[in-house]
Amino acid sequence: MKCDLTVFARLIVLVAYFSTEQFACSQEIDSGELIDLTHSFDEKTIYWPTEEGFKLLRGPAGFTDRGYYYSANRFACAEHGGTHIDAPRHFWETGETVDEIPLRRLIARGALVDVSAHCQSDRDYQITVEDLQAWESAANASLEDRIVLLYTGFGRFWPDRQKYLGTDEEGRAAVADLHFPGLHSSAAEWLASKRRIRAVGIDTASIDYGQSRDFPTHVMLFKNNVPALENVAHLDELPSDGFTILALPMKIADGSGGPCRVVAILDE
Predict the structure, then answer these.
(1) 116 and 151 in contact (C-beta within 8 Å)?
(2) How far apart (Å, rounded) are the C-alpha atoms in residues 194 and 191?
(3) What is the four-CA torsion angle of 117, 154, 104, 79, rounded to 10 degrees?
(4) Is the pLDDT of residue 34 over 80?
(5) Among 164, 86, 174, which Cα is nearest to 119's?
(6) In a shared domain, residues 251 and 144
(7) What residues have CB less than 8 Å from 250, skipping those under 6 apart?
(8) Nearest to 90 by CA among 259, 260, 258
(9) N or C terminus: which one in the chain shows less Cβ crowding within 10 Å?
(10) For 203-261, how does the pLDDT look when each residue is reduced to its tens digit (9 = 90+)?
(11) Which domain covers residue 168, as residue numbers?
């Protein structure tokens, strides 16, 4: 009987703990300001030059003979375009697919690293370890275990392909003309190995800079199963610290990526 009571007591403690955690999370969402960091998907959504754009195939819409309104559409798009997630499988053979990414990687404290001044003067800027360490020094905090968002300022160009990508041309030949900032592979390695971040995001079309040809930053992140968020919107509305990120993608089985709704919850 003593053993049964001990087990019962532990269960009571566990229930109380998780109930408190759930209540705290609910309170944070209810009281904190929400900022949508997601671009809408429409005919202007930016995709890689080799991909077709988003298509909304409109279906029936109107009142039925039974008197109720009914509307149903279909959509078609590539996995990688608009605000989306790159799953590790995208550039690493044994990396996690979209449906395998643990939810705890997608819900975490955030950090905004502002490199917009560098990127304004250099479209091909690659974010360095020093940029990341500068955030830690200014915030007196660590990037460890966070979702790190990289603010280049290029989100202000959306959906102008010429300004955002460096070219408005499409097709394979246009890839050579891509010019936008990204994360240097050495900084990606530092984030993955030294800070063990949960995920990283950026307000450009790729976590590698536009002129990359072998995508070392993708490879470095994904071999460590660190997913990347690309084309993140409205980073100019975030503080450098003091918020939580929820980045929940479409759960595509065996997917290498997919559309993602990214939301920030500001602290009170």
Answers:
(1) yes
(2) 6
(3) -150
(4) yes
(5) 164
(6) yes
(7) 98, 258, 259, 260
(8) 258
(9) N
(10) 999 999 999 999 999 999 999 999 999 999 999 999 999 999 999 999 999 999 999 99
(11) 34-266
